Structures are given as C-alpha cells and as structure tokens.
TrEMBL record:
Leader sequence residues: none
Domain of life, source organism: Bacteria
Response regulatory domain location: 2-122
Any single GO BP term: regulation of DNA-templated transcription
Lineage: Bacteria, Bacillati, Actinomycetota, Actinomycetes, Micromonosporales
Post-translational modification 4-aspartylphosphate, affected residues: 52
CDD domains: LuxR_C_like, REC_NarL-like
Protein name in UniProt: DNA-binding response regulator
Organism (species): Actinoplanes cyaneus
Keywords: DNA-binding, Phosphoprotein, Transcription, Transcription regulation
Pfam families assigned to the protein according to its UniProt record, in alphabetical order: GerE, Response_reg
Classification via Gene3D superfamilies: 3.40.50.2300
Domain (HTH luxR-type) ranges: 144-215
GO molecular function: DNA binding
Length: 216
C-alpha cells in the first residue's frame, strides 16, 4: 500500500508517517499544503491519501477540496480524511461522490492504532470508514421532524453502523443478531426513507446521505 499524507501539523504528519512505516506500509510522500499534496498525488500515484480537513491558507475546507480534486485526477485513489471536529457538511461532501474508498475519522482516532489501521485498510480495500463518534454526534443533531424520526431504535442502530461503513455480517456481529434480521431492518429503513429499488443509486449510500443531511 502506497500512501501520501497531507497534514500541515508537522508533529502529526511525521508521527503518522512513522506509525505507518512501522506497520510495514509505504509512505511515499508527505505534504503540508494542498498544492504539495496534489503534486505528490500526480507524481507518486498512491493507493491511499490521508488528508487533513483544514489546511492552509484559510484552514477551512482546503483539505476536502484537495481530496475531491485528487480523486478527479486519480479516480481509483482511496481517501481517508482526518478532522479535529465533527463537521457534517464535510462528511456529506465526501459521500456524495460515492462511498467506495472513502473514510472520515476524528484525529483522536489515530491514537487508537488498531482502529485507525482497520479504517485505513477498509478504505484501501474499497470500503467506507466513518468514525463512530462522528455518527453518534450526528444522530444527536438530527431534527425531530426528519424522516429518520420514523425509524425504530434498532433501525437507527443499523443505520449508524451502515454509516460507519460496516457490511451486514459485521453489523450482525456488533448487534448480536442474525444476518437475516439485519436484512429485514435494512429493508424497513429503505421503506421508511422512501428509497425504492433503483439501479442508478446505491440505496445504502442514499440512506446514509439522508442521515447526514438531516444533521446539517
């Protein structure tokens, strides 16, 4: 796995590089500005980019914008975004481009090495990795009048784990229920959110996006 790190905090940037190299992963470049990051992506064509949300010059959404541009230039690039805070709009911006090979984690998750590496490998493998703390806080922000209010507590649990990027088997293990029960809950979620079968859209992604949008 070839990795590029875009992070303007030198301590975190070098710490991430040391951690990943100690795990036998190849960090091919590090960058402290969006411009340096995009140059590194074009030069090294990495498998994964780890990108800070807030980067110079304004420290607002430059990291997200750079990640979007990097995916435009290198469509197969997996992107794991790091943020110091829960920022629903940025999570939504990521998923609107599709859920494959995308992740959104709080920076504090890096210190939990096993969970961080699991998210990294999940994203590199084509999946999605949303920080559980992000999901928990977003659920707390959902509007009472949103369509999500029709979901049962168990359906909300299932949707939260879907938003983290877990598949049906992993959801069943987390909730200690059968995969058949998971399928039933997901069908009910789709029905309550008005998501009819449609080959043009991934209903799992659409359901997660509906959830994220409700928290904005």
């Amino acid at each position: 796995m070839r990795i590029v790190i875009a992070e303007d905090d030198a301590l975190l940037r070098e710490g991430l590089a040391l951690l990943l190299r100690a795990e036998g992963l190849s960090v091919v470049a590090t960058a402290e500005t969006p411009g340096e990051f995009l140059t590194a992506v074009e030069t090294f064509r990495p498998d994964v980019a780890i990108v800070d949300v807030r980067m110079p010059p304004t420290h607002t959404d430059e990291g997200i914008a750079a990640a979007v541009e990097a995916r435009r230039r290198l469509p197969d690039l997996a992107v794991l975004v790091l943020s110091a805070y829960v920022e629903p709009a940025f999570a939504t911006d990521l998923l609107t481009q599709g859920s494959a090979k995308l992740g959104y984690l709080l920076k504090e998750r890096v210190g939990r090495v096993e969970q961080f590496l699991d998210a990294l490998h999940r994203v590199a493998g084509g999946g999605t990795a949303m920080d559980p703390e992000v999901i928990g806080q977003l659920f707390a922000r959902t509007r009472p009048d949103s369509s999500l209010s029709r979901l049962s507590p168990r359906e909300r649990d299932v949707l939260a784990l879907m938003a983290e990027g877990l598949g049906n088997t992993a959801i069943a293990e987390k909730l200690v229920i059968t995969e058949g029960a998971v399928h039933k809950h997901i069908r009910s979620i789709f029905a309550k959110l008005g998501l009819a079968p449609d080959d043009r859209a991934d209903r799992r992604v659409t359901a997660v996006l509906r959830f994220l949008e409700s928290a904005r």
